[in-house]
Amino acid sequence: MTQAVRHDVMRARNLEVVLGAVSRGGPLTRAALAEVTGLTKSTVSKLVGDLVDAGLLAETGPARVGERGRPGVEVVLSGARVASLGLEINVDYLAARVLDLTGGVRFAARRERDNRGSRPKKVLTELQALATEALAETHRVGLEVAGAVLAVSGPVGDGVLFSAPNLGWHDVRPAELLRLPVPVELDNEANLAALGEFWYGGGERDFLYVSGEIGIGAGLVVNGTLFSGATGLAGELGHVVVAPQGPVCRCGGHGCLETFAGQEALLAAGGVPALPDLVTALERGDAAALAACKAAGQALGVALTSAVNLLDLDRIVLGGVFTQLYPWLSGPVAEVLNARLGLLRGAPPVLTASRLGGDAATLGAAGRVVHRVLADPASFVTRAQEA
Amino acid sequence: MTQAVRHDVMRARNLEVVLGAVSRGGPLTRAALAEVTGLTKSTVSKLVGDLVDAGLLAETGPARVGERGRPGVEVVLSGARVASLGLEINVDYLAARVLDLTGGVRFAARRERDNRGSRPKKVLTELQALATEALAETHRVGLEVAGAVLAVSGPVGDGVLFSAPNLGWHDVRPAELLRLPVPVELDNEANLAALGEFWYGGGERDFLYVSGEIGIGAGLVVNGTLFSGATGLAGELGHVVVAPQGPVCRCGGHGCLETFAGQEALLAAGGVPALPDLVTALERGDAAALAACKAAGQALGVALTSAVNLLDLDRIVLGGVFTQLYPWLSGPVAEVLNARLGLLRGAPPVLTASRLGGDAATLGAAGRVVHRVLADPASFVTRAQEA
Question: What are the entry keywords (chains A, B) (predicted)?
Answer without folding.
Answer: Kinase, Transferase
